[in-house]
Specification:
Elements lengths: L2 E6 L4 E6 L3 E8 L22 E3 L15 E3 L2 E2 L8 E7 L7 E7 L17 H7 L2 E5 L4 H4 L17 H16 L5 E11 L1 H11 L9 E5 L9 H15 L5 H7 L2 H18 L19 H6 L8 E6 L2 H9 L6 H9 L3 H8 L8 H25 L4 E6 L4 H5 L10 H4 L6 H6 L5 H21 L15 E5 L4 E4 L3 H7 L7 H4 L16
Parallel strand pairs: 2-4, 8-9, 8-10, 10-11, 11-12, 12-13, 13-14
Antiparallel strand pairs: 1-2, 2-3, 3-7, 5-6, 7-9, 14-15
Helix pairs in contact: 5-7, 9-12
């Protein structure tokens, strides 16, 4: 039986669906649609409405390549600039106390993705932990992560870091409204995967996000992504060159069809990848306003919000990209190219720890480590000096993924986190073996994530990470705790940063850039 569920928010009444065990609200606006005069502007407060607003169906995904809007094998979500919405899933049962809140930020390289993806439902997590799960959309690609500030005018300026500003606006909405849904605004955990994990680290580093969340989880974060103001301006000019002339830039950016702007941006991405291998320009920018420092540096320097943090990676991060996306330095030539900026000695030091290099599978492992594991380990150590930090590595792979040569690759940890192993496609994934193991790692993820959301610490069997021991939970069947796994590789990677145009040109690299290409 499904009934309506009306909730009065600060902006008006929203109507969701209430089932026997779960209730859902979809596509609730947390900001005014950034269209017309609000294109490339910071998110503005929601305009209140009268009557009851339907919140039973997803609406639009952010502007992105069409493949990014696929939310199930047979359904692709429509796309629009009007996409600043969030979704809420809560148990239908009553509760004597406000429930912990978990806010999920989706990944997709800051280029694609949507909170409507079937995997991100959150219902199984909400029911298992008696928590409220919120997921959100934010501006992507050219509309969220390119800084066109120099092309603005006094009358019509363009703002920076729009995707990050959107995420902060969504968290402010949660603080104002989540109590009406039974949630505790004083117990909010943010969690995200891939670019969503980098967003979590960026929120840690953004002064304006202070007090909006109380714990953080970063799954497979490309932790040293980010661009300097100079790099951001360089890439914005490249986008404009593919869209219009610089003399007509303001008009083109404000009046062009959004997909024309997106296509110009994608051409700029390809050009940037050719000219600056290993540099990923679509990332938060150190603008001196929202972000005083790169998130990576702010965390290590102790200038980030000192809240408890879980951070980790998958064992075989690079395999997914080598097979499907070609977006990381997962072949020997590209890996040597990105390492060359650090010098011959550093290149040799790193590659000597990957026995069998330049064999293809070894290069894939090293390329994934370069992008995800290397910077995450530095964040673990840096944050542990200032706040409780818990490190993990996800090692489990069902037989089908091992046979496919993927193993515990990027994003496969989302399956147990959201309880996907109990779905029809999850059971198909483990049909060749691994169903018991999937249940085991689902328990490990969910019980630790939920205990962390409730209390600020995972289960007592998971020790905190310190620079003395570097205790790391290996999530596998069975799970275990290892101290300083792959120590030789960790030491070899020390001091190496993600590529940036300035670094490649031989300049200073105090402000590292980021890693990936336009393929995502």
């Amino acid at each position: 039986m499904v009934a309506s569920a009306d909730i009065t928010t600060a902006d008006g009444v929203v109507r969701g669906r209430r089932g026997r065990r779960i209730q859902r609200w979809r596509a609730i606006p947390y900001a005014t649609p950034p269209v017309g005069d609000l294109r490339f502007r910071a998110p503005q407060p929601v305009r209140p409405w009268t009557g009851v607003r339907d919140a039973t169906e997803f609406q639009s995904a952010a502007i992105q390549p069409r493949f990014g809007g696929r939310i199930s094998p047979r359904q692709t979500q429509q796309m629009s600039e009007d996409a600043l919405t969030l979704n809420i899933v809560a148990p239908a049962s009553s509760s004597s106390a406000p429930r912990p809140v978990m806010v999920f930020v989706h990944g997709g390289g800051y280029i694609f993705g949507t909170s409507a993806l079937t995997l991100y439902s959150g219902a199984r997590l909400a029911l298992r932990g008696d928590v409220i799960v919120v997921s959100l959309n934010y501006r992507l690609g050219v509309f969220g992560y390119v800084d066109f500030g120099e092309f603005g005018t006094d009358a019509r300026p363009f703002d920076s870091n729009l995707g990050l500003r959107d995420q902060i606006a969504a968290l402010r909405w949660v603080r104002r409204n989540i109590a009406a849904f039974g949630g505790d605004p004083n117990n909010v955990t943010i969690f995200g995967e891939s670019a969503g994990a980098h967003a979590v680290l960026s929120l840690l580093a953004a002064p304006d996000a202070a007090g909006l969340f109380h714990r953080a989880i970063a799954q497979s974060a490309p932790a040293d992504w980010g661009v300097t103001l100079e790099e951001a301006q360089m890439f914005a000019r490249l986008c404009v060159n593919f869209l219009s002339s610089s003399e007509n830039a303001h008009k083109a950016l404000t009046e062009s069809d959004p997909h024309d702007i997106r296509r110009a941006y994608q051409r700029a991405l390809r050009k940037s990848a050719q000219d600056h291998p290993g540099f990923f320009p679509t990332a938060p920018v150190v603008d001196g306003d929202l972000l005083p420092q790169l998130p990576f540096d702010a965390i290590i320097d102790g200038n980030a919000h000192r809240v408890p943090l879980i951070i980790g990676t998958c064992r075989n991060e690079g395999a997914l990209f080598a097979r499907f996306a070609d977006a990381l330095p997962t072949d020997p030539e590209r890996l040597r190219a990105v390492l060359a900026a650090s010098g011959e000695e550093a290149t040799r030091r790193v590659l000597d720890t990957y026995f069998g290099f330049p064999r293809e599978d070894v290069a894939v492992q090293a390329g994934g480590d370069y992008t995800f594991w290397r910077p995450s380990v530095e964040v673990m150590a840096g944050h542990s000096r200032h706040a409780p930090t818990y490190a993990y590595r996800y090692d489990f792979a069902p037989r089908s993924l091992r046979l496919a040569g993927l193993g515990a690759t990027h994003a496969t940890d989302l399956i147990p986190v959201f309880g996907g192993g109990d779905t029809s496609w999850g059971r198909a994934l483990t049909a060749a073996g691994g169903r018991r193991g999937m249940r085991s790692v689902t328990y490990q993820f969910q019980e630790n994530w939920l205990e962390f959301a409730r209390t600020g610490a995972p289960l007592s069997s998971w020790p905190a990470y310190t620079e003395d021991r570097r205790s790391t939970l290996i999530i596998d069947d069975p799970g275990r705790v290892d101290d300083d796994p792959h120590r030789a590789r960790r030491l070899a990677w020390e001091g190496i940063r993600a590529a940036s145009p300035a670094h490649r040109a031989g300049g200073e690299r105090d402000e590292p850039g980021s890693e990936a290409t336009e393929a995502v």
